[in-house]
Amino acid sequence: MTKLIEIQNLGIAYAGQNGWTDVVEGVCFDIARGETFGLVGESGCGKSTVAYRLLGYGAANSRVQAGQVLFEGTDLLQLDARALARLRGNRIALVPQNPTTALSPGMRVGQQIREMIVTHCALPAGISMETRITELFALVGLPDVGRRYPHELSGGQQQRVTIAMAVACNPDLLVLDEPTTGLDVTTQRQIIQLLSDLRSRIGMAMLYVTHDLALLAQIADRIGVMYAGKLVEVASCEQLLTHPAHPYSRGLIASIPTVQHGHGGARGLRGMLRRDQMTAGCKFEPRCDFATAACRLTPQNLIPVTDAQSVACMRWSEVADSQPPAPSPVIALGTKRDTETLMSVDDLSLTYAQSGWFTELLGKKSIPVARDIDLELRCGEIVALVGESGSGKSTIARAISGRLAPVSGTIKVDGEVLAPTLASRSVQQLRQIQYIFQNPDASLNPRRTIRAILERPLHHFGIELQPDTLETALESVGLHAGYLNRYPEQLSGGERQRIAIARALLVNPKLLICDEILSALDVSVQTRIVELLLALKQQHAVAMLFISHDLAVVRQLADKVAVLYRGELMQLVDTDQLFGSPLHPYTEMLLRAAPGLCKDDYVAPPPAMPGSQSTAGTGCPLAGRCPRQVGELCAHSRPPSQKIQNGFIRCHIPIADLTHHTEDSAVARQTHVSGSASASLSFQLRG
Predict the structure, then answer these.
(1) Is residue 355 domain-shared with residue 434, that is, in the same domain?
(2) Sign (positive/negative) of CA torsion 563, 566, 567, 570?
(3) Structural domain containing residue 619
(4) Is residue 43 classed exposed, middle or buried when 0-12, 13-18 and 19+ CB atoms within 10 A define those classes?
(5) Over the stretch 653-683, which tens digit does the pLDDT of each residue have?
C-alpha cells in the first residue's frame, strides 16, 4: 500500500524550569492510504504531542529536536503557516478531544460548519450549503441542530458536531485525538461505522489516538503502543491484542475491564509513569516485572519479531511465553453498604425552557428533559446512571447538586429536603455533595497552580491543611507532589481529570456525583481510580451517583444501575441482575453495542418507523426505535412501571415475556461478550 504519511525519528522537547526536556524520542511509523493506525498509551506518554505535529501544531514552549513528518513526500515541519493552512481542514483534518473548547460558544454550530466549508473546500456540484450541512449532521447521527449554540447540546452531541466539521471536506488523513471519550456506546458504534464507511468510500486514512483498546479493536489495522515518549511496540491489531510482546502492552490489556465480568482479575500495571525515575536504559524498567540489571542500563529500540510486529524489549520472547502476573486483590462490592438512605429523589421533573415573557415571546413551550425521576442512594452505595448522550443524565446530576432548579419534585439528603439551588443551601450541605465534572478543562482555573486549586475547597469549608494532605491526595489518584507547582495547561487531559477527582475527595463528602469522570483516563489509571472509589465506599461509606457510558466500568463498580432514555428511567435493578438478564429492549441494545477486544459485527438499532414515534410525551420514549414495539400501543400509551426483584422496569411487555425473550437470546449475547474477552485472555494461556 502507498504510504500517505511517514514519521521518521521524531523528537520533541518542552521547555521547563531546568531547560529543555525530551518528551518524544525517536518515534517512527507510517500510515498508508485508507489505513487506520491506532496510537495508545497512558496519559502524558506523548500521544497527542505526536498527533498534533501531523498538522503542524505544537505548544508555544515546545520544539522539534529531530526527525521528519512526511506527507506525500513533503516535510510538514518545514512548511510555513500559509502552506500548512492550505493542508489543514482540506487534506488533513482534526477531531479534538474536547469539543467544549473546540467549538466557539458565540456561534451557532451550523454557522461553524459553514465556515469550515467556505474556508477549506468547495461544495459538491449541485448541492446547496444548507443541504450539505444537513447531510453532515445526518452523517454523524444528529438531527438538524444548525440553529443551536454549543451550550444547548450535550457533550456527546458537541463531539459529533466536531466530527461533522472534520469530515466536511473529505480529507485524506483524519487525526482523531480521543474523539469518542464523551460518547455513549451506541453513539461510539455509529461513529466507528461512520469512520469505516468514509475510509472505504474515499480512501481516508486515520491516526486514532485513544486509551480505549476495545474501541481500536473495532477499527484499527495496526496499533502503536507508546510509553514515556517512545514507541515500545507496533503490531497489527489482532497480533497486539492476542499476543502482546512488550510487558507494558500486556499490562495495558490486563487492565481493561470487560462487560461480562467487570475487571478480568489479572494484575495490570503497577506504579505510574514517572519521568523523574527513569533510567538510562529501558524507560519502563521501574514498573516492569521482567526487568533485569541490563534493562536499567541498555536503551531499547524497536526490533522486528514477526512480519507484523516490532517490539522494544530485549526479553520479549521470555515475556511472551511467561504466565500472567498474579491477580491483584479486589475489594468486594457491597460490603459497607448501609440500609440507611442517604439521598432520595422523588418525582423529579426538569426542563431548560422556563416559563416567562421571553419564552412566550419566542413561542416556546416548557418541554421536560427529565420527568418523574425516582432514585435512592444508601450510605456506601454506588448507583450508576447510564444512557445515550442527551438522555438527561447530567441534567439530573445538576439538579441534585443544586445547579439546576427542578420544575417539580424533591431531593432529600439525610432526610432533610434540600433547597433547589446552590445559593440557598447551607455550607454543610454543599460539603456533603461534591460534583466531579466530565470536562476538567472547564472546571479547573487555568490561572491557578494545582496547589492553589486543591487548597481552595479546604479554605472554603474551613478544613485544616495538614503538611502531607495535598501529597496524599495526589498519590491517591496516581500523581505525585511534583504536580503541585504546575498549571492545568501543563498537564495532559487525563492528568487534569485526576486533579479534579482529588479536589472533590479532599473535603470528605458523603455523596460524590461522578459525571463521566473516567472517560478521559487510560485503562491503567481507570483501574487505580476504581480501586480508590471502592476503597472510599468500603472504608467511609461514601455514596456515589456514577454517570458513565462505559458499561464495563459500571459492571465493575456499581451496586445498582439506572437506565435512562430521553429523560425517563426505563429500568432500575441490581448490577449483576441487569448484566445477566437485561430484560428491557433498550438495556439489551446498550449491552450489545458495548465494544470488546475483537472485531465483531454490530447490528445497528432499527430506524424509527414513520408515525410510530412517541409524541408530546404520551407514549414510550423508545417507540419507533424499539425492536420489540407493540404496534401503536407503545407510541400512544405511556408504559407502566413493573416491579422486579430489587428494582423496576418500564415497558408494555409483561415481565414473563421479557424474561422468556432474554433467556432465548442469552446464548447469542454470551457468544458476543465471550468472543470479546477471548482476545484479551488468549495471551495469558500461552506457555
Answers:
(1) yes
(2) negative
(3) 578-594+603-685
(4) buried
(5) 999 888 877 666 654 445 444 444 333 333 3
